[in-house]
Amino acid sequence: MNEALEKELKELIVDALMLDDVTPAEIESEAPLFGSGLGLDSIDALELAIAIDKKYGVKIKAEDEGTRDIFRSVRSLADHIAKSR
């Protein structure tokens, strides 16, 4: 169900964060976005949260308790967006 949304998110991640060395197809839906996975940092998370708000109207606040879980992977982001729309 969320496959199309996951694909959109992968494209959004590459575009919003200007990842020149990664294509959307190379991002695995279950791979960690931070640390050993895609290697994003807190600044990337902020930029991505802003891009998600602009595109989907879904706000993700840094101070919210579940934010770390939301940003775990593309799939967890897609699930959160789907539930929040």
Brief synopsis:
This protein has 85 residues and is mainly alpha-helical. It is built from four helices and no strands. It has one domain (3-84): ACP-like (Non-ribosomal Peptide Synthetase Peptidyl Carrier Protein, Chain A, Orthogonal Bundle).
Q: Explain this structure to me?
A:
The structure is a single chain. The protein has 85 residues and is mainly alpha-helical. The chain has one domain: ACP-like (Non-ribosomal Peptide Synthetase Peptidyl Carrier Protein, Chain A, Orthogonal Bundle). Helices cover 52% and strands 0% of the residues. It contains four helices and no strands. α1 packs across α2 and α1 crosses α4. The protein is globular, with a radius of gyration of 12 Å. The mean pLDDT is 94.
